Every structure is written in structure tokens, then in C-alpha cells.
Amino acid sequence: MRALRRWSVCQARALSRVYAVAARWLPAARRAWSWFGPRRLERLVTPIERTAKALLFDCRMCGQCVLVDTGMACPTNCGKRMRNGPCGGVRPDGGCEVDPAMRCVWLEAGEGAHRVAAGGPAPVTRLAPGHQRLQGRSSWVPLMLGEPLTTRAEAPPLPRGRDAGSFERACASGRPVVTVEVGPPDSAGPAPLIARAQLFEGLVDAINITDGAGGNCHMSSAAAAAVLVAHGMTPVCQVTCRDRNRIAIQGDLLGAAALGVRNLLCLTGDDVSRGDHPQARAVFDLDAVSLLDVARGMRDGGVFASGRRLEVPPDLFLGATANPFAPPFADRVVNLAKKVDAGAAFVQTQFCFDVGMLERFMREVRARGLHARTAILVGVGTLASPRALRWMGAHVPGVHVPESLLRRLEDAADPMAEAMRACVETIDAVMSIDGVRGVHLMGHRNEAMLTEIIAASGLRSARLVRAA
Asked: Residues 221, 213: contact at Cβ < 8 Å?
């Protein structure tokens, strides 16, 4: 099956032409097709469609065929069921984060899309979320009857008038923006979270609260973000699609907004297999792009994803992530463009340990003008030891740590001091890149060291550092 799937990607341009012809002529005979009736036609066509698509595309019959938009690579094979991939965890060899033995479907989709475009830029098409009730249904029958399904995301609603929060104003200010990541505690009490977050008072523009990072269980991101709001801090609430369907996610967005949480970072989420609950069932009802579409519709359109109206829309500042350091490198900017089109007004990247890779990514970002439409904050930081950093580079999909940096830290007389110097050098380098608006600091349970890095980088004044 996988060999034939590769064949279909290689023949994507020819197959897309066949599809275009079928899409033009099949509806022309809808009077004849309607003689059978929809149910009988479904019974006749579905087995043929299932067999043909399974053979050529390894298709799972989602009922919303998007092959023409995905380079003839069927996204139902994606381990996270993404319809707007790729995720940030593609392995260096191109393997899927969930199933390392399988090549990432979105690498194949990118290759097929480039073939269809015949050397031109790959199209930026946002696809609608999956429709569970259409599973197993034919996509050909609606086309034959002149009633093709809507597979592309609708145009976003026009923004409504709203007052910007402090983090949103910082992103629009033109000065360097600084955010930091703090993991919520394994506790029903807020004291540990507050103590760690207060270390950054006066040092950062916002504090990211992770949402089950790495597939591990902690206090919920929405609740932890609300705790910080109650203590006068500015959180960014991370929301992943891994653990909740679109009903639960929309409810969480309303609840967080009601408690004063405005800043939202939309992520697809890590695979559960490496977390502390590997037996858990992942949901992935949405992906990051469709989550942005849903959240923007709630904010600007005042409606749920179902179309039902909201009494009071949530006031949200929407953001997303990008990973310039994982394959498919050529299509990372296309994925970023989808997120910006869906409403991401700020973007935070994965750890940057290789400035050269970031520079190549930013050249493409500037070529598309994306840097003018969103605030790009580059992920920087370090871990507690060179050994931990080496482990992360080897075992965490999507993180790229150059061997030269690892040797530099391992050979140093004081590895942690050297790690701090390397991080400050990275900050200096990335802030000199045109289009970079700021940095996002990360380092698991390493808050004290991150405050020192902020001080040493000159991103914030010494007076503010001493006050913290």
C-alpha cells in the first residue's frame, strides 16, 4: 500500500488533472445519477471508491476527500489525523512522531503539492476539520449529484473592534518581546506555580502555561493561567488538540476568557506515547490550524463552530507555533502561512540551537511577507545539564541540537555557565535577524537560570532584573 501511495504522490500532477476532468463532467450527468437515488447510488459507488482509493492512496474513507489539496497523499494516514499538517514533531529521518516506521504523510503531501504546482509556490489551503458522521461515506456521490462537500475552511470573519491587552500591545510595540514558559504544577494548590512565575516579574511580557507538554499530566493550562491573572500576571494559555474534542475545547476557551485569560497559543499537541499516560487515547479532533479558525470564529464571528451564536464572545489574542528545525523544511513556511491566515497574531518557535537554519526559514518568511502580519518570537533556552540536552536532542521529536554545541558544553569546565553564554549568544544572533520580534525562553524547571539569561542578554534593564 505504501509503495502505491508513493506512486500516487509521484503522479500527483497527472492525477489532479484527472480529478479536474471528473469534477467537471460527472455533475453534468447528475440527471442520470439521480435516477438511482442517493442511497442506492451510495451502495453502488462506495465499494468501488473504497477499493480504488485504498489501492492508490491507502485511503481510510473519511467522506471528505481532500486529495486534490494534499498532493494526492491521503491525510487520514497521519498519526495525529491532521488535515493541515505537518506537526512540529517530524523526526530528522522524516519518520512520523507517532509511528517512526512510517514516513510522515505531510512530507509526501508537500512533494505532491509541489508537483501539482509545477515548480511554483505550493498553495496555502486551509482544510476544514473532519466530520465524524461522514466516516466511511462516499465523496464521489455528492460530486456526481452536483452537491460536493465543503472541504476547505471558510473565510475568516471580519475582525470586530476590541481593546488590546498588555501582551498584544507589546507585540505591536516594535521593541523586543520576551516570553517565558512555565509548566503548571503537579498540585491542586497554586502556591508552587505562583512562586515560580513571580521570578519573572518585570522581566517578561507574558508567561506561557503549558498544556500537558510531552503527554504528561499537570494542572490544567486554563486553570493555571486564571491563577496568574488573579495575581496580576499576564499568562499565555496553551491549548492542545490532543486531549479534547471541539466541544470540550470551545467550553475551555469560554471558561478561560470568563476568568480573564486573553492570550491563547494553539497547538496540535505531542504524542501520548512518551508521556506518563501512554495508555491514554489521543483525540486530535482538530489540529492547530482548525483550532485557530474555531477560536477566531468565536471571537470575531460570535459563533461556535456549529454556527450557534454566543451571548458574549471571548476576547482572545491568538497565537501559534512554528518549527523551522524539523522536516519538511521547504513546507514549514506554508504551514506558518496557514496559521497566520487562520488568525495567529503571534508565533513562538521550537528551541533554536542552530541559527543558520532559522535564517533560512526567515528568508522565506520575509519573502511571503508573513513577518509583517505576525509577531515571531524565537524559542531559546537550555536544560539543566549537557546530558539532559543531549537526551532531548536524541529523543524529543522536532528538537534539533547540533553536535558542535553539545561538545562545547561537555568540554567546558563549567557546563552550565557555558550553556548560559551559548544561550545569550543565540539571543544576540536571532534578534539581529530581520523579522524576528522577540524571544521565547524555555527550560524545564530551570526558572532561576532563565532569569539570569534575560539579565545577561540585555533584553531587560538591570534595575528590573534586581527587582525580580
From this structure: no
Distance set, CA 195 to CA 4, 207, 260, 445 (Å): 56, 13, 20, 12
Contact 65, 151 (CB under 8 A): yes
Kindly tell me if the per-residue pLDDT of 149 is higher than 90: no
Looking at 186-234, which runs of residues are DSSP E strands? Answer: 206-209
- DSSP category for residue 299: I
Distances (CA, A) of 70 to 19, 83, 126, 132, 279: 13, 9, 10, 20, 31
User: Which of these, 173, 203, 265, lies nearest to 449 by C-alpha position?
Assistant: 203
Q: By the 8 A CB rule, do 297 and 129 touch?
A: no
Question: What is the distance between the alpha carbons of residues 345 and 339, in angstroms, rounded to a whole number?
Answer: 9
Q: At what angle do helices 288-296 and 246-258 cross, to 10 degrees?
A: 50
Contact in structure between 354 and 141 (CB atoms under 8 Å): no
What is the average pLDDT across 190-214? Answer: 96
Identify residue 258 by its one-letter amino acid code: A
Give which of 398, 287, 270, 295 is closest to 345, Cα–Cα.
Answer: 295
Separation CA 447–CA 197 (nearest Å): 8
Residue type, 434: D
Q: How far is CA 114 from CA 12, 70, 325, 371, 381, in A?
A: 9, 10, 20, 23, 35
- Over the stretch 272-313, which tens digit does the pLDDT of each residue have? 998 999 999 999 999 999 999 999 999 999 999 999 999 999
